[in-house]
């Protein structure tokens, strides 16, 4: 009995996989030709990268998803590729495969680099992450110069100016296509303000301007929607909590890194907004750290309208109250130094 059933299994196996013949992946009929955008994640095997890859694989606007890292990308790719959503997933490992990972991409999301440990500032990451961002952006300039770039690697206040200088050097710089991701500051602000007001955070919209580190993170609580007012104590509490949101997570993780899950959510939300803009949807507006004429600084985070060209319109800050005007001056002072540091890294 046993031998006849094992013979049957062997017969079926032989039928499915005749000797010397296996159906190879490239012989399958699926070619990944579905309409949609081609998206690459650089640093895809990291804490942010893995969850972000999962969320982008679920995005119906994505037809091809390239996952690049210097370690572990084959495993992450194999895992994600078994999800039965439209995007075709391909993995790329190490510098020799960077160009293949980037060629033909519409959107490149960059969470590559080291995260903070307790006691560190984001600027303490500069020495390692500046070089990583430079190398990856050189790849973008060479292989997909028209792609929209979402830069997550910290310190964002310096890495965005680094990317801009790399693109200028390569002759490919388009300020509309380079966006530093500050969405997590907005999702935190919406969450904390929702808690104070007793509202579903989904109903709350807080503009957060400036940059992405400490006092450069400036929530404009006077412009919260739905319109509301805060006591001086509430304003102080909310502003500090939003500015220190990253440190709150770093301390809670106690040496195991910084925000990854909420950041992947925020990055996926922002990437989706960029893709909707590229698709031609009207009225897509998010905060981002971009080339700007809103202040005297060359880069600044504020609301931007996303369209086919990228950041098509950068909005003015609107009326600020006294508390916010003082915060803005502090933010600009620190931002100016961080921007200069990033620019000098490439220029000097
Ligand atoms: N913009 C924002 O709001 C936020 C930014 N971040 C920043 O995002 C970055 C990543 O954070 P995590 O994912 O938690 O770190 P992680 O250490 O878990 O992952 C980083 C990944 O980058 C990869 N990597 C390193 N060098 C690379 C290179 N040359 N090319 C491609 N990949 C490379 C690593 O192998 C690793 O898989 C950090 O700099 C962190 O500070 C984190 C949270 C929020
Ligand atoms: O705080 C960090 O180092 C990571 C980060 O940028 C954030 O969570 O906002």
UniProtKB/TrEMBL annotation:
It catalyses: (S)-malate + NAD(+) = oxaloacetate + NADH + H(+). It comes from the Eukaryota. Gene3D superfamilies: Lactate dehydrogenase/glycoside hydrolase, family 4, C-terminal, NAD(P)-binding Rossmann-like Domain. GO terms for biological process: malate metabolic process; tricarboxylic acid cycle. NAD(+) binds at residues 43-49, 69, 129, 152-154, 263. SUPFAM superfamilies: LDH C-terminal domain-like, NAD(P)-binding Rossmann-fold domains. Substrate binds at residues 116, 122, 154, 188. Homodimer. PANTHER family: MALATE AND LACTATE DEHYDROGENASE, MALATE DEHYDROGENASE 2, PEROXISOMAL. This is Malate dehydrogenase. It comes from Linum tenue. The lineage of its organism: Eukaryota, Viridiplantae, Streptophyta, Embryophyta, Tracheophyta.
């Amino acid at each position: 009995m046993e031998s006849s059933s094992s013979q049957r299994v062997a017969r079926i196996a032989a039928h499915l996989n005749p000797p010397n013949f296996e159906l190879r992946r490239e012989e399958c009929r699926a070619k990944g030709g579905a309409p949609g955008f081609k998206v690459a994640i650089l640093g895809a095997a990291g804490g942010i990268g893995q969850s972000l890859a999962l969320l982008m694989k679920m995005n119906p606007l994505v037809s091809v998803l390239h996952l690049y890292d210097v370690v572990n990308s084959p495993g992450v790719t194999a895992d994600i590729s078994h999800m039965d959503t439209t995007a075709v997933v391909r993995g790329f490992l190490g510098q020799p495969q960077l160009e293949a990972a980037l060629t033909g991409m519409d959107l490149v999301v960059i969470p590559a680099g080291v995260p903070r440990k307790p006691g560190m500032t984001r600027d303490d990451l500069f020495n390692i992450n500046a070089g990583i961002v430079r190398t990856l952006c050189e790849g973008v300039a060479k292989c997909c110069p028209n792609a929209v770039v979402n830069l997550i690697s910290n310190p964002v206040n310096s890495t965005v100016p680094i990317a801009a200088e790399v693109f200028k050097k390569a002759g490919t710089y388009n300020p509309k296509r380079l966006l530093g991701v500050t969405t997590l500051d907005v999702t935190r602000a919406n969450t904390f303000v929702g808690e104070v007001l007793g509202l579903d955070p989904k109903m709350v919209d807080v503009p957060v301007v400036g940059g992405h580190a400490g006092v450069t993170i400036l929530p404009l609580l006077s412009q919260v929607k739905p319109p509301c007012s805060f006591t001086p104590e509430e304003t102080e509490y909310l502003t500090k909590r939003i500015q220190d949101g990253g440190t709150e997570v770093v301390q809670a993780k106690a040496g195991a890194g910084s925000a990854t899950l909420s950041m992947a959510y925020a990055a996926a939300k922002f990437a989706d907004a960029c893709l909707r803009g590229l698709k031609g949807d009207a009225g897509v507006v998010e905060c981002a750290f971009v080339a700007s004429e809103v202040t005297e600084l060359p880069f600044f985070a504020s609301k931007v309208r996303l369209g086919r060209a990228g950041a098509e319109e950068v909005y003015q800050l609107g009326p600020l109250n006294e508390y916010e005007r003082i915060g803005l001056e502090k933010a600009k002072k620190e931002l100016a130094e961080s921007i200069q540091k990033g620019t000098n890294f490439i220029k000097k």
